[in-house]
Amino acid sequence: MSVGQFFAILLVVTIWGANFTVIKLGLGEMPPILLSSLRFAFAALPAVFFLPRPKCHWKYVVGFGVVLGCIKFSLLFLGMDLGLSAGISSLVLQLQAFFTLLLGIFLLGEKVGPHRVAAMAVAFMGVGLLLFVSDGSITATGLVLVIAAAAAWGLANIIMKKAGSVQMLSFVVWASLVPPIPLFILSMITEERANLAMLPDQISWIGIGAILYLAYPVTLLGFAIWGRLLSTLPVGLVAPFTLLVPIVGMATSALVLDEDFGPIKIIAALLVMAGLLINVFGGKLMKLFSRRKPVIS
Q: What is the value of pTM for the model shown?
């Protein structure tokens, strides 16, 4: 890995980690489903006219767009709008790694080693601790919705895996064509603040900036760089850096939104991060220890 590639990874991790604080700022000016709709509309257009159609069956593109765009992000935005803080949302959403494992067992027939079972137990124990936070930054409804968003993300990962080897940025951009219209209709039906005629008077540059940040740096720039890195470096070298996303997310929330992290939150975060670390590195450590021969005195 070159120095340039290292800093490119850090750039993507920072963009994706700060994403949660930007979402929270955007939710202060517009309802969650409308924000999700606008985010995907800008992510798809005009980029879709410049990127080739992904080389896979349309069902995977549409399925990914429905599950990731319509379901996962709507649940995430709703959960954050209903009381889950940006920093904790960035942490809880990482449960997607374990939901991907569980769905892989049932849908793909994959096997899970004992270290992954231990990893899931540790991480979910940490999330369970969050229910005991009483500072107003966490609600049970918000927490459940973001956990559901993580499950939806896990299903989206399975869909992408079934799609085969595709160019990641093209796949994401073309799938972004799916969510805007159904989400917009749903927003008009269910959200009182979803009035486009009044939106120009309600939204400030913060709201506009949030939409543009979610569409362009997070989606287009982030996936363009990430896809390039995955195509030129071993996946096992690049993927572990995503462990930094919740760290950046929590730090950004503390700095920008003044989110307080008391002892329960810190312990919960350490448990979730420990689970993620065991999930990523546990298998290698088990192989390393199994290869060591006992010392005979």
A: 0.88
Say how far apart CA 90 and CA 146 lie, in whole Å: 9
pLDDT digits (tens, 9 = 90+) for 152-189: 999 998 998 888 888 888 999 999 999 999 999 999 88
- Residue 211 is assigned to a structural domain of this protein: yes
Alpha helix segments (H runs only) across 164-262? 168-175, 180-190, 199-202, 205-213, 222-232, 235-238, 244-256
Range of the domain at 150: 3-291
In a domain, 238, yes or no: yes
Q: How many Å apart are CA 204 and CA 213, to the nearest integer?
A: 14
CA distances from 240 to 65, 97, 273 (A): 25, 11, 12
The verdict on residue 296 lying in a domain is: no
Token pair 């400030």: residue:
204
First to last CA, the chain: 42
- Reported as a single tens digit per residue, the pLDDT across 107-150 is 888 777 888 888 889 988 988 888 888 777 889 999 999 999 99
Domain membership of residue 297 (yes or no) is no
Please give the tally of structural domains in the chain: 1
